[in-house]
Amino acid sequence: MLLHGCATVGKLGSESWGSYDSAQELIDKKNLNEANGRGKDYVYAWGRKQGNAEPQSLYPRKYLSNYCSDQKGNFSLLFKSNFSLVKDARDRSTLASKANVKQGIGAYQCVQKDGKRWIVSIEPVSESASAQYAGAREVTLKTDLMGAEEARKFYRNNSNTAANNSSKKSAPVPAKSAASAKAAVKEVEEKKEAPAAEPARAATVSLTPQQQQMKFYVDARRDINSGRNLNNACNNAQRAYNYGKLQGTEGTRVYTESGMLVARCLTSISTYSTRFPNAKGQAQRVLQNLSKNYNHAGAKRMLSQMK
Prior knowledge:
This protein has helices at residues 23-29, 59-70, 89-96, 99-102, 148-168, 178-193, 199-205, 209-226, 230-242, 249-268, 270-273, 279-294, 297-306; strands spanning 40-45, 74-79, 106-111, 117-129, 137-146. By secondary structure, the chain is α+β, with helices and mostly antiparallel strands. Strand 4 and strand 5 form a beta hairpin. The two termini are 27 Å apart.
């Protein structure tokens, strides 16, 4: 992936942030996510040769903060990240210990002077050695605008999950007698069996990535086919596609069909496509991915129609 090089450092303050009509347009034109929408690699540790260079991992937050300030707004942290998108436990542990990562992630809210309010989620996905810069380490960051309810659910659910995982990994306690150990187990089981204060919320917490992807896809397909809430429907299609191909045949189908919905949004739904500087080109990239990697007949047909 192409990255912002060291030459980018120093240009942030002189940029005309007022040239962007919206935070979404900034995300798109700054290419804060790659074309596939799964995130982009940013250097968070340069290594010895460029140890004093500004970490790229802070760029998404900085760009959006500058844009918010240009709109006479107040930019602040709304929810801390719990690294829920980082699947590898070792990556999660590494990133959680790096200040250059932690300072630039989470959900941020901008309240503009004109009353407009928007929330952006900047979440780490993985960690790796840089293929472009020797000795540097990178973090893949996914930058998405979210609605208030969506952000609340996402970070509340992941906070509960993180707390549960943390309690499971707590330090071992000293050995107890068989009787006291049995009593302790019984007490824990009784607590687990106690009714939840908010059953509806507890059910939401249990959603797996596959279920969340399916929900976004089903909602998007329903609204696009009915012609309702088209902009939100396209956002849901993009969110489903952003999950990537998850395990199983059904995961592949939901991923590819979400991609087809995204292509439809980019080519035939003007309320969505006008947000992107090269909507047709982005649609073609999505279709090429589906056609080449998944032999998707619909994607091949749509590509031929676009020529």
